[in-house]
Design brief:
This protein is of the alpha/beta class and 273 residues long. The chain is built from ten helices and ten strands. Helix 1 packs antiparallel against helix 10 and helix 4 crosses helix 6. It is globular and about 45 Å long. The mean pLDDT is 85.
């Protein structure tokens, strides 16, 4: 297996190559509109839509951003993330009350729900407009963007079944919802949700558990950069201990370093090659 040189839009189920390309799409979400559009053309996507809202939420974010690429065979919506230092206090705050989940199912982190609410109507309308020939739909995101991708998938599955996504891939996603919503999501997205965690990445360890938890389908990257279908039961804690610093949120700490989108791409390339 080798690092693919061109974007294959004919995805069918899970593959490491597809995980790599959606990781690239997550990284692209941090770029300018011009760079996104140029890369979309190079990847063979002929339509691009940008989604951005500015608002004053009860947490330190100024906007929510995403973009949608549409081709002949697949549509991808990638949600932009944010740096852990910008939201570490917010993610660590156990006093923030959750709010009702999609379709009234379970509960979700208030900040994630507010961020998605600000952009969801536009994303939904865009998918309804562009999905003209039965294309597969994928949501993806890194960090905060991973939480938004997962919640967007949940909302469409529970509220707009005709627009339900064919797959959701997230990288460094924080805990997003409670056990009730996670249970429903795990059933509805069996073999369609893949949550990548790079070793000591601090963001997937937040917000506190309980009340928040993760959905299934973990893809764990160990300290040597090897990809596993789950975290090893016996060696997981020992593996995470390797390289851990006293303060995982320190700028040079393992918890921050492992969260960088560029490092997710590097380890996926390593596993491909």
């Amino acid at each position: 297996m080798a690092v693919p040189s061109s974007f294959d839009q004919r995805s069918n189920g899970y593959s490491l190559q597809w995980a790599y390309w959606l990781a690239r799409a997550c990284d692209l979400a941090y770029k300018s509109r011009e760079v996104i559009e140029e890369q979309a053309r190079a990847w063979g996507f002929d339509q691009v839509r940008h989604h951005e809202t500015r608002f004053t939420p009860p947490f330190p974010l100024q906007d929510t951003q995403a973009y949608t690429l549409a081709g002949d065979h697949v549509i991808i919506t990638a949600f932009r993330g944010t740096e852990p230092a910008q939201i570490k206090d917010w993610l660590s705050d156990a006093t923030t009350p959750p709010c009702p989940g999609p379709g009234g199912t379970g509960w979700v982190h208030h900040g994630f729900a507010e961020a998605l609410d600000s952009i969801y109507p536009e994303v939904k309308d865009t998918l309804a407009e562009l999905r003209t020939d039965g294309q597969k739909v994928y949501f993806t995101g890194h960090s905060l963007g991973g939480a938004l991708a997962m919640l967007a998938g949940a909302r469409m599955y529970l509220e707009e079944p005709r627009l339900a996504a064919d797959g959701v891939y997230t990288y460094g996603q924080p805990r997003t919802c409670d056990q009730e919503l996670a249970k429903v999501y795990n059933k509805g997205f069996a073999d369609r949700m893949y949550r990548f965690v790079n070793n000591n990445d601090i963001v997937p360890q937040l917000p506190p558990e309980p009340p928040f938890t993760h959905v299934h389908a973990l893809r764990y990257i160990d300290s040597a950069g090897r990809l596993h279908d789950s975290m090893p039961l016996l060696g997981g804690l020992a593996d995470r201990a390797r390289g851990m610093t006293a303060d995982p949120l320190a700028p040079a700490g393992d918890g921050i370093r492992d969260h960088f989108m560029s490092n997710y791409i590097k380890v996926l390339e390593k596993n491909l090659s």
